[in-house]
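Quick one: structure for this chain?
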Amino acid sequence: MEKSQYDLCVEVLRRLDRAGVLKNVVLVGSWCTLFYKDFFGRTKYMVSLKTRDMDLLIPQPSAIKEKTDVAELLKDLGFVVGFTGSEGYVRLEHPLIIIEFLVPERGRDSDKPYPLSQLGLNAQPLRFLDFLVQNTITTKVGATTVTLPHPANFALHKLLVLTRRPSPEKQIKDKEAAMRVLTALIDKGQDNLITDVFYTIPRRWQTKVKKQLTDLTDKKILDVLSAHKPTTTTAGQ
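Got it. Here's what it folds into:
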């Protein structure tokens, strides 16, 4: 990752915070792996960020009360409005970073963009995003406080949606990221947090996650899940 890319990310977050937008946002995606470093502290945790994607999840769009033209807010940094997908999802594009807005998909599957009129944008609805905001942490990025999914939720979500990734290369990258985070949690002595989250999700979700773990040579994560299995688990949904 280029230093200038990190600096640009920090500036984007700072501006969103000053505009009152960031309080309604959870940063998700690969940037989380970088910003988890403070959470893990002295625990061995290595990360190499190689992405332009910066994903901003808005759990409750109705909570945004004030209007902010986000494209205009970031225009002088070099961001331009772009569109992706056949439905025309808006994203803000820069040679170093591409910003996309996401909302949890509620109800039947839909490819329609979710309008974020207060921000002058739209967002892509995706399944399973509610899982990321059930348990969150905050961290400092520069002088800005940023909300992230708890590392356990982040990593298990990566495994849960792995087969939805469009390319084998991205699947491999996401699986490696998930395993680094889960391993760091175990090394930090917080394996109970992994199982606490895992056994509160529907059984069919548990099956999807375990399927991604069974082909690994290192069975550490599966051993943790088996060792801490509660006497009663969440019913299938």
